[in-house]
Amino acid sequence: MKHLVFLVLALFAAAAIAQDKPAAAPEAAKEPAKEAAKPAPSKSAVAHKKGTPSRRTEDARHCLEKASNTEVIKCAEEYL
Hints:
Layout: H1 2-18, H2 27-37, H3 43-49, H4 69-77
């Protein structure tokens, strides 16, 4: 039984090693794509860089007491 398990594992390993690997693209071609894919920093990221402390760990449950959904959302956005 152990010989059978070893044989099956060896066959799977041989099959994985024998697969063709795709050719690596030059690094110069990858760089412009990375720069174009970067999104502009959001307002919250910019505000955080200016030195405002993060409020993610604070409790925002008091926002649930607001009258409408839009007020709740506006209040809770400060904690994101």
